[in-house]
Design a protein that fits this description.
single chain; 348 residues; alpha/beta; Quinone Oxidoreductase, Chain A, domain 1; Rossmann fold; 2 domains; seven-stranded mixed β-sheet; six-stranded parallel β-sheet; 15 strands; oxidoreductase activity, acting on NAD(P)H
Length: 348
């Protein structure tokens, strides 16, 4: 059996590049030769939490190596994401080959590079799940008839930038938070109002911009204090719904915010497997509706969103190969990665 290089978790909350057997796809799966991978904050965070021997990494772009009876063609360009470090079945994208469900990749448009294709899947999937499944906002295919407000906290995060674009194309009045240096960038993505979360009165600015009518918020930062603060930006009369991307059972809000509902979402539910992820509040149940929803958007991604330019991929910075990923992890830990995603070349 042939071997491949992969970034494998190791003792001491770290990882190393090792040679392991190339995986064999089961029924309903394909094998993809990985050309580029993209780094997410979850990659380095989970590396410190799992036992040795797990394959790190989620986002990838490459070519179909083994279609395995699917509708994909050998050497066809595809991109997607997996739940890195998962077992039963084993998953991980920071490797020369990755196995993935055949319905959970998208065809990379001719004009899109591997680098750009790799930064889309996980962040885009998280944004659509949060906005359209959890917050139940209008979708871009059936935009709102009147532009009611939605808040995207952490608009310059990878997920936040897709959320801003999607919410705008859904016909909503988009309020985004970000540092002052990124205000023009967020406006270019479609934000109607941009608020600097470093301002002491940022919550008051949001309330003013939304005329005390904000009922939907997506917290892409999801620190406990940011979620509590956002509750104060929601309608004083009706309250509202906050979705966070970090798993949390509950948030103790001010009694004045009793009408505010906080819910966490986790994109790995698209794989229809039981999720045990911290205090994630939907674990223990399969979610076929989440998989079907992601499959719908995967079919729309190539033409409707990417080729048309409706959605702009995150800005990328190429940072070497598989041996350089740990250096990228350190940069992100130190807060030195902002408004861009690091990508790594795995194969030509």
């Amino acid at each position: 059996m042939a071997n491949m290089k992969a970034l494998i978790s190791a003792e001491g909350k770290t990882a190393s590049v090792k040679s392991i057997p190339i995986p064999t796809p089961a029924e309903g799966e394909i094998l993809v030769k990985v050309h580029y991978v993209a780094q997410n904050p979850a990659d380095w965070k989970v590396m410190a939490q799992v036992p040795p021997g797990r394959i790190i990494g989620c986002d990838f772009a490459g070519t179909v190596s083994h279609p395995n009876g699917s509708s994909w063609r050998e050497n066809q360009r595809v991109a997607g994401f997996v739940q890195g470090t998962a077992v039963n079945p084993t998953r991980g994208a920071f490797a020369e080959y990755v196995v993935v469900e055949s319905s959970l990749v998208y065809a990379i448009p001719d004009k899109l590079s591997y680098q750009d294709a790799a930064v889309v899947p996980l962040a885009f999937a998280t944004a659509i799940q949060a906005l359209f499944q959890r917050l139940k906002l209008p979708e871009p295919s059936k935009p709102a008839k009147s532009a009611f407000p939605v808040l995207v906290n952490g608009g310059t995060s990878s997920v936040g930038k897709y959320a801003v674009q999607l919410a705008k194309h859904a016909g909503l009045f988009v309020v985004a938070t970000g540092s002052k240096r990124n205000h023009e960038l967020l406006a270019s993505y479609g934000a109607d109002v941009v608020v600097d979360y470093n301002d002491t009165d940022w919550i008051e600015q949001i309330r003013k911009a939304t005329h005390d009518g904000l009922e939907h918020a997506f917290d892409c930062i999801s620190e406990l204090e940011t979620t509590k603060a956002i509750a104060g930006a929601l309608s004083s009369k009706k309250g509202g719904h906050i979705v966070t991307i970090l798993p949390r059972k509950s948030v103790e809000l001010d009694p004045a915010h009793s009408q505010v509902r906080v819910e966490s979402t986790i994109v790995y539910t698209v794989f229809q497997r039981t999720i045990q992820y911290g205090a994630f509040d939907n674990c223990g149940s399969e979610t076929p509706e989440d998989k079907a929803f992601w499959e719908k958007y995967l079919s729309l991604l190539p033409e409707y969103y990417l080729t048309s330019g409706t959605i702009k991929p995150n800005r990328v910075k190429e940072f070497g190969g598989i041996e350089d990923i740990l250096k990228g992890f350190e940069l992100q830990k130190e807060g030195k990665v902002s408004a861009e995603k690091l990508v790594y070349k795995i194969a030509s």
